[in-house]
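Retro notes, item 3 of 5
We never archived the inputs for the manganese (II) ion complex last cycle. Fixing that now. Sequence and ligand:
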Amino acid sequence: MTHETFNSTPITRFLIEEQRRLNGDSTGRRGGCTALIHDVRLACKRIAALIGKGALANALGDAGSMNVQGEAQKKLDVLANEIFVHTNEWGGTVAGMVSEELDEPYAIPEQYPRGPYLLLFDPLDGSSNIDVNVSVGSIFSVLRCPEGVTHPTAADFLQPGSAQVCAGYAIYGPATMFVLSTGSGVNGFTLNREIGEFSLTHPNLRIPETTSEFAINASNSRYWEPAIRRYVNECLAGESGPRGRDFNMRWIASLVAETHRILMRGGVFMYPRDRRDPAQPGRLRLLYEANPIGYLIEQAGGRASTGHGPILEVKPESVHQRVSFVFGARSEVERIERYHRDHNEFELDVPLFATRGLFTHSV
Ligand code: MN
Ligand code: MN
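Structure as it came back at the time:
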């Protein structure tokens, strides 16, 4: 007799077996990370339950406050942040947390033990879409707390993405999924609501080498630099253009949903630097959006970049720092990096790009 419950590996078993494989026993330094992942997954299940109630939870709409980014907080942003903080603060796994929704790093209350890790998260990604019932998610990144530090300050969180111990996201779509990397590939788990647990359904996710799908917010095209304009125009030119094949465009405006699509079936995502605000190199947040997503993408065989070089090598300067972000199929991201090298970003009237194509606004 087969039964779904016994046919699939629950996430708890997966993590314990992975820990045994890495350490030869169950006590190594990754043990603490496993316990932390258990708490993060519980936070995500709690958020999934809340979001799944929709308007019935009476939690849709604006909270009437702004976050440190100057964005209007949704009620669910605030609730998801509280769930993340309170599910992860007590277990003795973390020494501090950074959240999109908190101006300053969260100090672990004194009654709780400190752990060896730092947890950074976007508790509810894509929340501007929540009222229209589009997939949203939670993104998290785990760093080691510097040796000897028990009360981390903002500076302790400013580590490059390459220092991440693990990273992942939950996506709250038609199915709730938890996608995770601890540094040896990417695995996807689906929430079995009958037993309230994630089961391994997507082992060893790999991003296809080639793609005919790209994602970008085309309403910003008048601000694009020549490299991005060239790339998109070549995709739009389709079979008769230099790429020799037709491309499709996608834009969900939810980073987790875009990432999930690319992990499942390939593609490339661009939120490039543009000329809107020279002080702002991009839109997405480095520490709790681009770094964890970049880590997953690289672990799945793709490439994650600023458009100029690896995202995971960017040295952070502040906890809410924004960055340009291009990721997905390795060959496409490398092409976009090459275009950035080939063209002076601020020389916007290079004839090749100013004369042809849809996105050729003169400036
Ligand atoms: Mn977000
Ligand atoms: Mn968010």
